[in-house]
Amino acid sequence: MGATVTTANNDEKTWGGGHEIQPLGSSYGKMMMWFFIVSDALTFSGFLGAYGFSRFKFIETWPLADEVFTHFPFMHGVAAPMYYVALMTFILIFSSVTMVLAVDAGHQLKKTKVAVYMFLTIIGGLIFVGSQAWEWKNFIKGEYGAVETAGGSLLQFVDKDGKRVALADFAVKLPEQREALTRSHSTWFMEDAQSLPSFTVAEIQAGFKAHPEVLIRTEKLTAEKKKTVLSREESEKHLATAKYVVEGANLIRNEYGNKLFADFFFFITGFHGFHVFSGVIINIIIFFNVLLGTYEKRRSYEMVEKVGLYWHFVDLVWVFVFTVFYLV
Amino acid sequence: MSHEHVSNTKRIWFVFGLLSAVTIVEVILGIYKPHALEFTHFVGLNLLNWIFYILTIFKAYYIVWAFMHMEGEKSSLRWSVVSPVIFLVLYLLFILLTEGHYIYGVFKDSTIKWNF
Question: Which of B41, B56, B72 is the last residue of a domain?
Fold first, then answer.
């Protein structure tokens, strides 16, 4: 096991064929990291391509990203599209910079410097994963709520000026609403598969009748790339076909629009977040190896370079996810 | 690696500045969405999206070349990593987006209301 020897005269960078042979001018480990990255890049391309496929399929009804991702910490109720993801992007780019600085310090065999930069990279990665968790929390919780029709399309509510109206702002409470079945409120074999929404369809319909200023917005995009707002009569007709009340997002339905939108959001940002998480774990392992002086004894910090490649790749993927999900 | 390593700190910070600047431009365009750019189409894509994709590729280039230090590798390694990705991705996107667009047309012209 040449690669795990920690003495100064190790063969870490040597291939089986001997010292003179170095295909593509690269060590075995580094080349394999590159080819792992190639395969992983193709996996992500497959996911993003599938997202593009579904989006092209529903090009006229796809949700508008600026309306979905509008939250910023400590700015409750203020619509701040893009700012938060922009911040996340900066955090990830910055952790990429500290990583490349660690690699650079490794080339000069400066152990302390490598350790400090690795530590900063790990912190950056953790902040990014935390930010993504917060983003997911807001996405899952939702803000306004919507109803789904029997045909599977989504209806959202707006006022006369086209501003979104939350379900709670107009729905009435009817006495027949049943309580959610939980273990503590029913017999042991009865439990709701999902928690009940705050309102029933009947309550939304009654509330809609009582509030003549509320209108319905369909998923359809106009020529101006805005969602279509229906007239009052049209709205009433559409609402009569309502079947589900949708609050927030899960893998079955979401209040933002097309079902696949949330599925792809969870899957692609989740898969990316998993990469960041595993990158942090690998960085921590290498960080401890740096502290223990493993690479100092080898006189080579190539291992830092290899995890660096993986870490930059994670940043690279985020650049594309950022564009495809939030900008375009 | 046989060649001597000199510190690249200056270049690293330069690339960081560049990537940050590009991200800021993207965010500003994403928030304001200039009407002239968003509603002018060029080869089936509006100019705003063209800009976003070009800037993304630009950022990707700098991450791979500067941060992943592709510029210091032999051109044989460079090509064997970059070319399969580029050509397979172009192929994949061509197939998937063409088919997606076709299915959109099928749904649009049919009388069936279907959402899956």
Answer: B72
Which token pair is A20? 């003179």
Tokens 């830092």 found at: A304
40-69 in chain B: CB under 8 A from chain A: 49, 52-53, 55-56, 59-60, 63-64, 66-69
Q: Does B54 lie in the same domain as B11?
A: yes
Residues B61 and B79 in one domain: no
Domain count, chain B: 2
Domain that holds residue B92: 74-116
Whether residues B91 and B50 share a domain: the answer is no
B77/A34 touch (CB, cutoff 8 Å), yes or no: yes
Give the predicted TM-score (pTM) of the model: 0.89
C-alpha–C-alpha distance, residues A93 and B15, integer Å: 10
Instruction: Give the tokens for residue A122.
Output: 């790990």
Question: Could you tell me where the DSSP H helices lie in A58-145?
Answer: 65-68, 83-107, 111-141
Q: Read off the pLDDT of residues A192-235 as tens digits, 9 standing for 90 and up.
A: 766 678 888 989 999 999 999 999 999 999 888 889 999 999 99
For chain A, say whether B100 makes contact (Cβ under 8 Å): yes
Per the CB < 8 A criterion, the answer to whether A296 and A10 are in contact is: no
Q: Are strands B45-46 and A154-158 parallel, antiparallel or unpaired?
A: unpaired
**Angle CA(B10)–CA(B11)–CA(B15) in degrees, nearest 5?**
120
Does B70 reach chain A within 8 Å, measured CB to CB?
Answer: no
For the stretch A248-300, pLDDT in tens is 999 999 999 999 999 999 999 999 999 999 999 999 999 999 999 999 998 88
Contact (Cβ atoms closer than 8 angstroms) between residue A76 and residue A271: no
User: What was the ipTM of the complex prediction?
Assistant: 0.90
One domain for residues B45 and B24 = yes
A312 vs A316: CA distance, rounded Å: 6
All structural domains of chain A, each given as residue ranges with its CATH number in brackets, are: 26-142+261-327 (1.20.120.80), 146-180+196-247 (no CATH)
Cβ–Cβ of B30/A320 closer than 8 Å? no
**How far out from the chain centre does Cα B86 lie?**
11
CB contact under 8 A, B60 and A313: no
B21 touches chain A (CB under 8 A): no
pLDDT digits (tens, 9 = 90+) for A235-255: 999 999 999 999 999 999 999
CA dihedral A286, A290, A291, A297 (to 10 degrees): 140
Statement to judge: residues B10 and B65 lie in one domain:
yes
Encoding tokens for residue A256? Answer: 């933002």
